[in-house]
Amino acid sequence: MLRVGINGYGTIGKRVADAVRKQPDMEVQGVGKRSPDYVAVNADERDYAVYAADESRADGFREIGIDLAGTVDDLVAESDVIVDATPSGVGAENRPLYERHETPALFQGGEDATVAEVSFNARANYEEAEDADYVRVVSCNTTGLSRFLAPLHENYGVEKARVTLVRRGGDPDQTGRGPINDAVPDPVSIPSHHGPDVQTVFPELDIDTVGLKVPTTMMHVHSVNVTLEERPDDVEDVTELYRNEDRVLTIPDYAGIDGAGTLKDLAQDAGRPRGDIWENCLWEESLTLQGQDLYCMQAIHQEADVVPENVDALRALEGELSSAESRAITNETLGIDLTHLHGRTDLTADRRTPDESLADD
Ligand SMILES: NC(=O)C1=CN([C@@H]2O[C@H](COP(=O)(O)OP(=O)(O)OC[C@H]3O[C@@H](n4cnc5c(N)ncnc54)[C@H](OP(=O)(O)O)[C@@H]3O)[C@@H](O)[C@H]2O)C=CC1
Ligand SMILES: O=C(OP(=O)(O)O)[C@H](O)COP(=O)(O)O
């Protein structure tokens, strides 16, 4: 059993903890938490051992009935590997602590790529993490773009990718980012940081990205245009390619899923924890071919898509399972499977009004 310590129990850390707990080959050693607040209570209620990130606040944990298991220093010493899910920039400050204990670590996409030896996406470059001690799981947007681009890259070649990222303004718990009523070029400089970040996974790829933020907490939406080196025979071939990707949910036209709100509703109806959507959500109807150019739109649940990638990155560091083997276990244990949407598509031919049916009979 791989003992995994999670340092930083916020939006990403709490989801990674729950995902690790579901794996047959891993266990959660404990979680590092700084503030003794409702999220700390939630960790305690879920029976995670809580370690203090800031010793000066240890009394605050005791006052709310949380019996600390130690400090983050202890957590690092007792774990086989650390998932650092602290805010952007704090991970880099933590790296010397992990080095001191010779404990390998994963970092998140808010860190600069230089924090680790490898920037990781399970679908695109799993093998590169096998000999590493420090790995950065790329950000939610970069994860979504890597999953989207990998099959195109392999099957048709990518001459040039251009992406407009309509970014959610903040996560639901980030009350400090609102209320807002605006659409803000963010970053206003072009290209945005996302293009260079995708190149940490696909070094040769020619990609330009621009970003803006809008007042929603639900999901990011990408408008993508890719010039392919080789033209697919038919757009249906591309649709089929994505239907066969394990972490891409292709949205069939009949489903009536018209935006991030209906996607979240779908996830909640499906009983997903926290309404999480781990897959890229790609509208089939938006897949369009014009000459060598492919267009499409996809939505990315920023709180969730990096979670299975963290689990796979832990296995990549171990070096015992292949990408396909690890992804299969992660998908199965988390329940990454909304293919029931496609099990219904055959019925669309019979979607006639009662009057039409009677007329035919
Ligand atoms: N949120 C998102 O949409 C995504 C975020 N990421 C990346 O994941 C990383 C984490 O982001 P996110 O989960 O949103 O962050 P959160 O702010 O939600 O959580 C951060 C956690 O780290 C703790 N923390 C803060 N400062 C320190 C410190 N000095 N030492 C130890 N722990 C500390 C916080 O403690 P406390 O609250 O107790 O003070 C909290 O538990 C970032 O790199 C981010 O860019 C990647 C993909 C998507
Ligand atoms: O990694 C993320 O986004 P990014 O890919 O746009 O950098 C997360 O959604 C965090 O974004 P934020 O920088 O708006 O907090």
TrEMBL record:
The reply to whether NADP figures as a keyword in the UniProt entry is yes
Recorded GO cellular component terms are: cytoplasm
Q: Which residues bind NAD(+)?
A: 11-12, 110, 168, 302
Question: What Enzyme Commission number(s) appear in the record?
Answer: 1.2.1.59
Q: Report keywords, A-Z.
A: Cytoplasm, Glycolysis, NAD, NADP, Oxidoreductase
Q: Which family does it belong to?
A: Belongs to the glyceraldehyde-3-phosphate dehydrogenase family.
This chain belongs to the protein called Glyceraldehyde-3-phosphate dehydrogenase
